[in-house]
Amino acid sequence: MNPRIASAIHPTRAAIAALPITTNVKIATAELQGLGSKVIDLGCGEGKFTRGLCTQFADVTGLDVKERKIAYANDKAREEGVSAIFIAGSADAIPFGDAHFDAVIFSNSLHHMPNPAAALQEALRILRKGGLLYIMEPVPSGNYHDATCLVNDETDVRTQAYEALLAMKG
I need a surface site. Which of 23, 87, 136, 164 has the fewest CB within 10 A? Predict the structure, then answer.
């Protein structure tokens, strides 16, 4: 399978400065426009980003291993009147059939997966032919990363996710 992979692995400071101020939901919906009706956000957490996808997709699913976060996400979806469905599960064993989704998203979550390469393979399995694998992932470098390392050093897990992405690109 050859999904389009949207990435910006090493933007320059000038490229970053030239970007308009926006949100990750607005960027994702622009990138995902016209892809179909079914989307899943793997590692969705409390589902804020996932609920934002409901403006564009008819069938929105969020998956996360933390049942407490899934319960919160479902409560918020009901409260906000959006049709997203949140389920507990692992990205290493996604409980959907092959080629089920038009878009599969990792929204700042791939580096939290115990096995990023396995999660990517599962994502490709559930992605329909011609669908989009959309990954927003912090890289293990830059000013923000350097500052947050003082409190929460994610260098190793971000590097593993980055290496899994590079291996996937071939």
Answer: 23
- The owner of tokens 């016209």 is 34
Helix, strand or coil for residue 167? helix
pLDDT per residue as tens digits for the range 12-56: 667 767 777 777 777 777 777 777 889 999 999 999 999 999 988
The reported pTM is: 0.80
Distant-in-sequence, close-in-space partners of 117: CB < 8 Å, separation ≥ 6: 164, 167, 168
Ranges of beta strands (E only) in 32-123 are 38-42, 59-64, 85-88, 101-107
- 72-90 core/surface letters (b: 16 or more CB in 10 A; e: else): ebbebbeeeebebbbbebb
Q: Provide the token pair at 157.
A: 């897990």
Residue burial 109-118, b: 16+ Cβ < 10 Å; e: rest:
bbbbbeebbe
Question: How many helices (H) and strands (E) are present in the chain, helices listed first?
Answer: 7, 6
